[in-house]
DNA sequence: TCGAACTTTCAAAAGTTAGTGAAAATTATT
DNA sequence: AATAATTTTCACTAACTTTTGAAAGTTCGA
């Protein structure tokens, strides 16, 4: 397989993965492009390679920066801004996990906490079914929260390899 | 908070979570409704509670069954079909993990394996950057695969609690 | 075998999300 | 301060996804 073909395939695969994850396709494709680039790319180079508009490029690069997996770099003597992706994929994983936790799990925990305060006759089977379900889900969510916090905190690889050996 | 209000809030929250996960909102809402129901519900009851059409109900219930988190149940003496959700949230988690792995991780692993065969001058910095990136991602993906397989296989709660204590 | 009860399908409509490109804003250079 | 290069914004459009509801299909009991 030629490099050009391989690159295109990777960008496309990473894009679909992103799309399935609720990350927009273009954002994931820009990320893919930067991951395999030998050096920082400018907005124009990204536009060119992916055939997307300037506005789209700008928006999605900014979002990648928000997620903490892409950085602006200044090349001396150049007026343009250049962008580079975090290459350590463990760190990328951690950053994505942290971001998704903040957006998804944290709000859910809040809601579940509220919902535990439901009032009503404990003998009513509707109330009982509701309370039981919410309690179960709350425990699960809390557990996940604790686990993810540990993972996010422990960026060092010894941690991952410890878990890894355990699960192997 | 009254039960009706709490129910509505939970269904809405579960729906948004689903939407962010690329699961369609209605599918997640039906799932939420079944999770807190004290008994199996018919298609008509689901339509009624969520104000959705028959077609929509049918499609999404079928998809929930495909994911293995909802079951058809037959109530003696009744002609209609009734539906019930898996109430053990750990099992729900496992089923969803397994399904997503099949749809997302497995195809990605295949692609990455292919891409490692890229041909070209090892001294070309473009080739080198590509190969390095793909190798790193492949290792990460493989690792995740092994880990998830272990999680999926071990449905017993002792397993989760062992990991839990470790991470605590 | 017929018909009522129920489920499934599917084409069209509605709704949602992503992408464009030109204009506005910002920043750097002279 | 004027100009040029670059980035950011945003109203609009294009593409995609979901939902509807009526029609077709199926199942079951009499």
UniProtKB/TrEMBL annotation, chains A, B:
Residues 22-80 form the HTH marR-type domain. It comes from the Bacteria. GO terms for molecular function: DNA binding; DNA-binding transcription factor activity. Keywords: DNA-binding, Transcription, Transcription regulation. InterPro entries: HTH-GbsR_regulator (IPR052362), HTH_MarR-typ (IPR000835), MJ1563 (IPR026282), WH-like_DNA-bd_sf (IPR036388), WH_DNA-bd_sf (IPR036390). It holds the Pfam family MarR_2. Belongs to the GbsR family. This is HTH-type transcriptional regulator. It comes from Chitinophaga skermanii. The lineage of its organism: Bacteria, Pseudomonadati, Bacteroidota, Chitinophagia, Chitinophagales.
């Amino acid at each position: 397989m030629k490099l050009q073909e391989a690159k295109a395939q990777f960008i496309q695969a990473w894009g679909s993965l992103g799309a399935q994850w609720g990350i927009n396709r273009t954002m994931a494709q820009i990320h893919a492009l930067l991951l395999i680039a030998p050096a920082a790319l400018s907005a124009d180079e990204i536009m060119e390679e992916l055939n997307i508009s300037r506005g789209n490029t700008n928006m999605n690069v900014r979002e990648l920066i928000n997620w903490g997996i892409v950085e602006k770099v200044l090349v001396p003597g150049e007026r343009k801004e250049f962008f580079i992706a975090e290459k350590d994929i463990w760190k990328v994983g951690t950053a994505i996990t942290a971001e998704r936790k903040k957006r998804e799990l944290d709000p859910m925990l809040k809601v579940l906490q509220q919902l535990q305060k439901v009032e009503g006759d404990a003998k009513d089977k509707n109330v009982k079914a509701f309370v039981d379900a919410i309690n179960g889900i709350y425990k699960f969510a809390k557990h996940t929260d604790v686990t993810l916090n540990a993972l996010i905190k422990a960026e060092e690889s010894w941690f991952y390899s410890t878990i890894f050996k355990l699960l192997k």
